[in-house]
Predict the 3D structure of the following.
Amino acid sequence: MVIERILIFLLALVGFSAIVGAKNIIKKVFGLNLLNSAIVLLYILEGSRIGEQAPILGEGVTNIVDPVPQALMLTAIVIGVCVTALALALAVRLYKATGSLEIDTISARLHSEQ
Amino acid sequence: MSSESLFLSPVYLPLLSAAGILFIKSFCPTSIKRIAEYLGILIGLVLPLLLVLRLYPIVQNQGYIETTIGGYAQHIGIIYRFDGMSLLLILLAAAITLPAWIFSRNEGPGHSYFTALLLIQNASIAAIGMAADLFNLFVCLELMGVTAYVLIATGKKANAAYASFSYLMLSSSAMVFFLLGTFGLYNLTGSLRYEAIAMGLETLSGRNQYVAHFSLLLIIVPVLLRVAVMPLSLWLVDAHSKAPHAVSALLSGVLLKVPLFALIRIFSLSPFASSLALPISYAGAVTALVGVLLALSQSDAKQLLAYHSISQIGYIVSAWGLALHAGVTTMTGSLLLSASFFHAFSHAQFKALLFLTIGKTTDAAGNRNVYTFRGANQALRNVGERVPLTMLCFLVGALSISALPPFNGFYSKTLVTYTLKGSLHYTFLTLASVGTVASFIKLSRIFLPSKQPMVLPAVKEKNRFPVSSHLAFILLALSCLAVGLFSEQMILFITRLISSEEAQTYGSSFFFTQDNLIKTTLTVLSGIVLFALAVSRPGKYVLHLLEKRRGGFTDLFLGFATALGALALFAW
Amino acid sequence: MKRTWFIFKVIFILLVVTLAMLPVILSSHPWPVASRDYLYENALSDTGAVNTVSSIYLGYRAMDTLGETLVLLVSITGTMGILINLGRESEEEEAVSFSLAPEKRATNAQRTHLLEVVASKLGPVVLLFGFYVMLYGHISPGGGFQGGVIVASAIVFLALGTETQSKLTNTTVLGRIETLSFLVLIIVATSGVFFERGFFGNPIKSGSSLSVNFIILLNIIIGLKVGTSIAVMCIAMMGGRHGH
């Protein structure tokens, strides 16, 4: 019970520390994905605590899991993917403009241009 | 049409016209494309506003109209609730989007994708104003955010991409925390509907109450991030100053305020949340002062305006926070909230005007540095302007933001400071308005005639000054003036929408008292003194030191963590 | 000095975030069962879909789905805009090369024999599977989004694997399908307004055996929309033909 949540928390923390601490902007985007996935896992895991079967009604299906978090996470995953795509496109743009993927170098080169 | 279909029209009509524009763009020739865009703006932006205004009497009598999307059972479907604030937000969005769009036709990025994006953004704003469902609010906020990132990234320089990237990383990771907060509340109450959450939170006890508090905190801070209250405002300057001008006008006019007023519903979920309103309002007051100091120190014209957005948001947030602290339904609370919205509305108008005029002027001269740029009128004449309308409109904006009668800024700022009288906020805000005057004297100097002969960028052919830009300027300038002249009616309109009780009228006898006039005169005088200090040698040195302080990428998150930690400490 | 300051900042941020997140993650409150029970009883009769997840995300909470489709649309528009602008700029200014040089693109130099064989054989099968997932979303795991993503990957396979240019990998055609399905989606969503069912209301009478058709229709439209738009984006990122 608790150990799973702690693992999810660690996953989220790894993701967040990549966003904050990593120098490479691609790694930052990966961090955002990790953070997002951790929360998605948390929803799905906790939502499945109250049942056993997949939420597809049919013969003999009685004890279904909560379908609400699954449906919510469907939306959240897609939004995460969209943001990732946009972030990666911006990363390409930054790389073409400055020739670097390191956030500090990018920011320094852009400001010296001004 | 039923009233349910009517009040959802600001959501589906813009979407319909956006879809139509995209469809026609990919299937039809260019000539129809332009007609489709004009038609789309008409159907998607103007028509829903007219339809919604028809609901004004119903909102005033009943307070709100409610519907479940798709007609499903209430506790499982998504509820949209249309109240006075929703109407005001739709009005605000349309009032700024229209001139910004007109401006963008000639000054860029005026392609049909841009029009479609604006329409989608307006739909998301209407949805944010109406959603009474936590997860739907998340989706709509993300939609608004994504449109903002894309709009910022349409800037031509790579700087815009950097600004968009940092805003995207910060805001999206904050929204993940919003998702976690939603998880906590759903786990505790089993519902995503505001009313059910509020009822569920009342019955909690012991440790679960802590969980509820932290969940609320995780929801509130990411939304405040979009509003850019002080420790959370570091992303704003880059994003607003690097975006195309029409987008800057929209960002600071509309996108800053919508999440703030949407938060009111979240704050009413539990008494704990409304206890957070007081520290936020103090943060707002500090923001107003610090923002204006930083604005005074800027040398880049658009960055100066961006810092002013932070400062003015401080005004709005401090009145807003005190309103929630007093309770929105109480007499003082509703007055404070009306004042806060009135200032938000006027700020949207004059800041959009300032961004557009300054943007046009600096583009014409190819220079954005307020210390070296002089003779702006010459530069404008060089690109074909015959009558100095740009300067006149800029002056209207500058006088409005400096709170001089008869423009809207005077009325809204006076109302805000009046409602805050006697509190610590009052001192902060008064000091901030001195700084505003000083920094706008500094900015207006670009219109002084240049002493040295100017080096102007060569113009390929004798082109005419675009009519659409002038139209946008005049539209905004006139609305600044109109809101000022008809302030009594405007305030009545807002207060009636916000509270159902019989509203007091604030006529000219309220605004033009001796005290107010003396205060305005003193503010202007001390603003001039402050400006003189700022251009003196030691003043320049101090301001230069302030200007050099710019945060890196990690500092954005430092601001986020500080805000989260401070509010958590306060809660604890 | 700068380095220690940076590490100190990161540690502070992580510490605060940890403290804010832990209480919510570790909450021991039992998961609520009310909505699950309600859905178990009523989802089938309300929307006609056997798959409860489908009935939520295209029925009860269809507004979220609309929002997410819009997010997808906006972000793909933005991504394409950024990438296409880059393509235009690189001719003028000296930029760092990111994707393959244009002269190499036409011959698809990145393609190896292995990739070609696998991708071109896999493409049609995956395409079929994608449509299956899309069409059967209301009775089995899946739905418009999942099916759409599978369709998109099939199109990417085809773009990678086949030498000939087919209509399926032409971004202009894909873009047209995308805008058409988006328009149809919005019209379908608004249609309820004119049938007195409200926005996103099912215009087909609920309870009848036909009412599930609304969800099937939405699944197909969303699948087409998602599939084509993701495919367009992937092809653009691969440095393919720009049709937008």
